[in-house]
User: Fold this.
Amino acid sequence: MTPRPTPPASAAGSESQQRVDTLLTRLNSFKKAPAGLVTLWQSVNGAGENSTAKIFLDEGGFPAWFAYILTKKAAESNGHFDGKAAQCKLIADLEEEPVGSRKLLASQLAAAIPSQVREKIDRLQERKINPLNDGVSQGLSKKRKTDDNARSSDRYDQYQHVLVNASLDQAVTLFPLDLVDSILRYPDPKNEGGFVAAISMSFPAQREGTIECQMALEITENYVAHFAQELFLNRVETKDGLRYLRSGRAKTIPNPKLTLTGCGHGIIPSIFGKMASRGIETSPKYRNEAKQRRDITDAVSMVISASAYEGATIFLDLGLWEGTLIKRELYI
Assistant:
């Protein structure tokens, strides 16, 4: 039986927005560069791809990385202040989360940074960081130039590879109704009283490896068990506010999150619709698996939490051309 749709969720009430707000707390009030900023910057450039700091830098640029660093330093400090517990929990949770979940948070954070705060960060970067780079990373400090008549500029971060706040009207036409009903809604920052779909897309600046384009869809909590079963044949149960995977008598409990992969080819068109399905089928990961005669794919994955009160995020790897076409539909 199809779960009942959840009413549009307010941005303040969603888990992802709370996490973004936690990271913005220190950033919005910073007065000067923290001690050791240059050393931290130099170390992150040599960090591994799974490093949280590196992920925030790659996905959200210097501003998102700076917000993460400020929050991490505050969480690790000896002082006591309001909100420290939330910051400590977030920093600890991030180290246990899948890379895709951290990438999504970094892109959401970058899009949420207020313009006046971003200007302060740009000045800090130009003064403290850019002189160290000898031209290697100068492009990171340059803002995306836009026309005064450009629509929804908040949908793009300044590095032009992450898009957020998809058109709800376009999502309704692009995806099957069951999927559309499951997607979180956020208040539209450009249209008072309107809503946008909680869908983001990222296009890596350097398309190396198996990802050319990735879409993330934030799903309401009452659809998590439905999609876990439909996409991955995993039985999800809840008890006393705790979500876990059931396999026979054994239970697998996310700690704090886990990633489901291995989606059957046959279910993809009915869940995601024709256009997204074509995008998945043309992704490097899917094509490589098809060459190996595999009938399941890791190009579709879902990150779920142990809390039954939190939603999930479905990630779709897409081919570059098809992903670009979908971008044009969702971010008009």
Observations:
- The mean pLDDT is 83.
